Amino acid sequence: MSSKINHHHHINGHDSIPPPCPHLADFRSRNGTKPFHLLQNCLRIKPPHGRASIRRDPSEIPRCGACAVSSVPRIYACVTCATISCHAPPEPSHAAAHAASMAPGHEISVDVDRAELFCCACRDYVYDRDFDAAVVLSSKANNIHSNVNSDNLRKKRRIVEYRPWLPDIQERVLVNNNSSVLNFVEDRPWGLRGLNNLGNTCFMNSVLQALLHTPPLRNYFLSDRHNRYYCQQKKSGNENGVVGGKRSNGGDGNGGKGLRLCLACDMDAMFSAVFSGNPVPYSPAKFLYSWWQHAANLASYEQQDAHEFFISMLDGIHEKVEKDRHKTHGLGHGDCCIAHRVFSGILRSDVMCTACGFTSTKYDPCVDISLDLEPYLGSSAKSMSLKTHSCNGEADCTNSSQNGGISTLIGCLDRFTRPERLGSDQKFFCQQCQVRQESLKQMSIRKLPLVSCFHIKRFEHSSIRKMSRKVDRYLQFPFSLDMSPYLSSSILRSRFGNRIFPFDGDEADASNEMSSEFELFAVVTHTGKLDSGHYVTYLRLSNQWYKCDDSWITQVNENIVRAAQGYMMFYVQKMLYYKAGEKQVAQ
């Protein structure tokens, strides 16, 4: 249905505005705007800033006066006499029947669930400036009351201005006496060190290189937030060679040989070794052994999947921390182990009944997002899709025009958050209809992590053909990524129209504007076949790109990175991304 006055119709090749609803004009001439302002007492706003609805009592369930049904798509209340009627095309409209049976003036009703005016005679939504002003005024009054009585909400919505840290006098003395500045070693950024291949372990080396240079993870371990010596002392009950809780400065980081280290301890040892300044390639043998103990089913010298290793390793760190704390923490809420504090976000899944519109919502934590490559659309269709997003640099725009059949990370994310009609064999039980109904499913991102990892599904497995294959299609990915179009708040606004409020209590600030912009800092690539390929990582350090091929480190041009066959992309929030080239001198 098109809303009168607000929408345009195409007539005889020209745009024209439809005439105003005569029934609304007649209603205003008879009653003025008083009935609209009286409706303010019945307006209910779901806090904070929720959707407006019409209820005389907050617990009231409106039912049609003619058929006593409350589950039809739309329920309307007559503005003149408050009679509740339903309107569910193509079924007979009790709202229209009520207007026809009454004297003039009963044609105008209000949608009780949307707080929008509806003409029962025209069977269309209508717009009235005074009524909309009453809705907005009621919402503002509710917002003021909600802000006065909700300190936690106010704190959550407070945007903290980022200020660079500068040490005071005491901190400066401690820094000068106990640390050294991260600089370049042999024309390389500090911490860029090759990892020896221990026998088909390129899958592990590629992921470890990305993690070693993940800014929040690197800052956590280099600031001694997880001290492997203290961890082992607490576990074994003896100091194990530690004096006063201080660690030694061994370059190999393999202290405490008699004890089995947790994965977090091994990561701490690896950070110490990689950032020790030693340019000789490092062998992560102890980490590999500890990971084998955690993932016994993957303990072999065969080639493994880098993404599977990434998930298994984060689970290993999480499992160890949970055992130490003896309590369970909710993933994605920032109160868990360091692995999930950095990588964990929350996905929102909405399943909507196509019969009545009832929506079932679920929230699930995730440490990465797996994306399907876009289907081949041809050059014309693909160019239309790319026009909706700006190109990131000249190289991106060139590739876009020359490769009509390529996939883009933007397109994959669009497809991930696009509504999907579930098949007849996937009907869900609708709580409102009380039967199984066909439905639409839509994914969105409820909370963004500090670091977003995107996994591209390049390995296909067919149960029908009983075979597997690798998809060698090119994927175009931007160096800067805006995730705001894929947030739940944006998806809900797109779904429900142009109302100015967020919907259903969904907190628009769960991932605000500052945290929705991301920068690419690592790309894990895979070349070769399914069972005999090779993994390589490209790292962005000091605004330069470096290729990490096991023990070999080489500087490369960014066009080499753009042309690489991306398998895993790591993006960090822009406010946490520091360009080492922009040096600041502490005064």
From TrEMBL:
Its main location: nucleus. Belongs to the peptidase C19 family. UBP8 subfamily. Its EC number is 3.4.19.12. Recognizes and hydrolyzes the peptide bond at the C-terminal Gly of ubiquitin. Involved in the processing of poly-ubiquitin precursors as well as that of ubiquitinated proteins. Residues 19-144 form the UBP-type domain. Keywords: Hydrolase, Metal-binding, Nucleus, Protease, Thiol protease, Transcription, Transcription regulation, Ubl conjugation pathway, Zinc, Zinc-finger. InterPro entries: Papain-like_cys_pep_sf, Peptidase_C19_UCH, Ub_carboxyl-term_hydrolase, USP, USP_CS, Znf_RING/FYVE/PHD, Znf_UBP. GO terms for cellular component: nucleus; SAGA-type complex. Coiled coil: none annotated. This is Ubiquitin carboxyl-terminal hydrolase. It catalyses: Thiol-dependent hydrolysis of ester, thioester, amide, peptide and isopeptide bonds formed by the C-terminal Gly of ubiquitin (a 76-residue protein attached to proteins as an intracellular targeting signal). GO terms for molecular function: cysteine-type deubiquitinase activity; zinc ion binding. It is an enzyme of class 3 (hydrolase). It is found in: Nucleus. One of its GO terms (biological process) is protein deubiquitination.
